[in-house]
Design goal:
Layout (H helix, E strand, L loop, with lengths): L2 H29 L4 H23 L8 H17 L2 H29 L3 H23 L8 H21 L1
Helix pairs in contact: 1-2, 1-3, 1-6, 2-5, 3-4, 4-5, 4-6
């Protein structure tokens, strides 16, 4: 691992992902104002974002240049999925968190190989656990029963993977 460059990449992409997640939930809550499950997940994502924002500052890492796009795109994805119904909003969470599960697992493996950065590993572990809880909540709320789930799931996973790839590089 090319230490400083790789750590900056990890911080940048995770901050971008947490930012995007807060925007998705903000969009969903604009439509589904009283959904307590979404509110709880949104609050946890806001805490994740706060921690990664702090790491950006402490490590002098610039955010992704795509942040303005994630601002609009995340919100739009949240609104559209919520307008299609609660199950579709939860289907969005399932798709995103499936990608994030793999993403965080890969980062943790990469960091384990370095044998350093315990604080960052602990933060990623905590976020990872909460992201898995979000997926479980969304499944419990019927997200897998949303109309067109397989197509929606594939599309949102592809978008999430593209966002990760772009945010980690630019």
């Amino acid at each position: 691992m090319e230490q400083k460059k790789d750590i900056h990449r990890i911080i940048r992409v995770n901050q971008a992902g947490e930012y995007g997640a807060t925007r998705i939930y903000k969009g969903q809550l604009a439509v589904l104002k009283d959904d307590e499950t979404i509110k709880k997940m949104a609050d946890q994502e806001a805490e994740h974002l706060k921690k990664f924002n702090q790491l950006l500052i402490e490590n002098k890492v610039r955010p992704t240049l795509f942040q303005p796009i994630w601002h609009i795109g995340g919100y739009a994805l949240g609104v559209v999925t919520a307008l299609l119904g609660e199950k579709t909003a939860h289907a969005c969470t399932i798709a995103v968190e499936t990608v994030i599960d793999e993403h965080y697992q890969n980062q943790l493996h990469e960091l384990e190989l370095s044998g350093e950065h315990e604080d960052l590993k602990n933060l990623i572990r905590q976020c990872h656990e909460e992201e898995l809880e979000h997926k479980a909540f969304a499944i419990d709320e019927g997200g897998e029963n949303a109309l067109g789930f397989p197509v929606l799931n594939s599309a949102i996973q592809a978008i999430s993977k593209a966002a990760i790839w772009l945010s980690s590089r630019v």
